[in-house]
Each structure stands twice: as structure tokens, then as C-alpha cells.
């Protein structure tokens, strides 16, 4: 966090940060850079990483599949399509019905739209990826999950880009940047939109920590331990979608954090869900913040989308996990 406040197109001294945070500097360029630009962006980057990491952890635990990730199962593409569709609908209404007194769409509606889109598309991907034996579902195929997720995600992303290019108007540039997973231009408004969902998500995760830890086992084992598997599975997946979709609404689909962080966390602390949640909180925030710092400083004053950097990290991990799963087949 300190590095994020220090580094950027203009590097600042640690004493400047302390002075601003202590209230000794309340005006001027230094104050604006730290308080209005870097501080909200730094906090938002950390929260976004937490959301994606916990979402991935929940999905991998419930589906019992190391490839489960908000991007892979379609949450990101579904949420993106829903948000772009809502923005297009808002612009069309303003251009026709409300052209004399247009109304700006409130940013608080974006997480809601993202959740609807994420739930619908992820449900479709999971349904298509389920394996059946003698008419009975036996689980989620890792290969099918990856292929269906990539295929459906590719189709939806193409539709989104078509909408943005053809109908985007003045929103085209900012929307394309958002679709790449960028925190550019984010401020306290975006932070306060995400924060309630963070609190809600963490509270819900705390409440379901026990059944979630049991869902990692075989369904028959979980049932024998008194877990209502169907109910808690649906609730857990819905929570994972809420966490990911709300983050996508403010920062775009920052890819593969939900895949990489839970996997690395298991290597560090094993499979205990209580320990994994703590490590994912820390690692998710650090990875997202680190990607944002690099995106701002690598080609300064130009800026890369943070999502591009997390994708560079995530693709090799995805390929490794796919190869590992393929090697386990008889």
C-alpha cells in the first residue's frame, strides 16, 4: 500500500504521504495526488483483489475443481455483457424518451446488473460442463469447464466489443479500458460502491465457513456429516458470483486472480478453509495492488491495464493446472 502511494508518474516522498494522512497538508498538488487519486485507487485495488481471490476460493471449494475461476466459469463475460447492455439501454432512453432532460445512470446500479449477468452465464457454463453417468450427474469436468468457459466467454466478449464499437459513442474509449481490467480514474465514489459488498461478502463467508469446508469433500461424505449439499452449494456459488461481479462493476474483469491466488494459497497453508480465507485476503489484495503499481509505473506516463498483467501471470497457471488434470486421467 505504501509503495502504491509513493510510486507513479510523479514519485513522492514518504514524508508527504504522512503529512497528508495526518491532515497537515490539505491543499495543493501533493494533496490532490495522494488523497484524491492514489489513496482511493490503492484501497480499491486491494479490495478488488480480495473479491476475486475469495470468489475463486469459494468456487474451487464448492465445485471441487482447481480450474474454477470467475473468468473461466463465465462470471466475468456475463457481468461485462450485462453492464455494457445496461449502459447502452440508459443511453438509448436518454436519446429518445428523455432527450430534453437526460438522467445519468447511477453507478450503484452496475453491481446489480453485473450480478444478474454473472449468475446467468455461470449457471449455463456449469450446466454444460457437468458430467453424466447413466443419466446421473457425477461432477464437473475440468476440461469441459475450461473449454465451455473460453468458448462462451469468447462469444460474449465479441458481442460486448461489437456493442461498444457500434453503439458506444462517447463511452467507447473508457469502456474498452474498463473491459481490459483497469483502475484508471477510480476514486472514492467507486470505493464506496464496492465497500458494502465487501462487508456483506466477508460476513456471509464467515457464516458459511463450516459448510463450505465440508463441501470440499465428496458429496456422500458431506451428506453423512449433516450438510445440505444442494442448498449450501447454490448459496456459496451465488456468494462467489456476488463478490466477483461487484468487483467487475468498478474495475472491469481483472483476470485470473481468482485462479492463481487460491492455488498458491493451498501450496502455502494446505486445504483448511479457515487458513485459506486469511491467506487469500492478503495475497489477493497484494497481487491486485502489485499489478496496479506495475501498470502505472512500467511505461510511465503511459498506463497498462492491471488485467493485462494478471493475465500474463494467470495463463501459465491455467495451462499447468490443465496439464496436471489431464495427467490424472486413467
Automatic annotation (TrEMBL):
GO terms for biological process: siderophore-iron import into cell. One of its GO terms (cellular component) is plasma membrane. The chain crosses the membrane at residues 39-59, 71-89, 109-128, 149-168, 188-208, 234-261, 304-322. InterPro entries: ABC_BtuC-like (IPR037294), ABC_transptr_permease_BtuC (IPR000522). Keywords: Cell membrane, Membrane, Transmembrane, Transmembrane helix, Transport. It is found in: Cell membrane. The keyword Transmembrane helix applies. SUPFAM superfamilies: ABC transporter involved in vitamin B12 uptake, BtuC. It holds the Pfam family FecCD. It comes from the Bacteria. CDD domains: TM_ABC_iron-siderophores_like. It is a multi-pass membrane protein. GO terms for molecular function: transmembrane transporter activity. PANTHER family: FE(3+) DICITRATE TRANSPORT SYSTEM PERMEASE PROTEIN FECD-RELATED, FERRIC ENTEROBACTIN TRANSPORT SYSTEM PERMEASE PROTEIN. Belongs to the binding-protein-dependent transport system permease family. FecCD subfamily. This is Iron ABC transporter permease. It comes from Oceanospirillum sediminis.
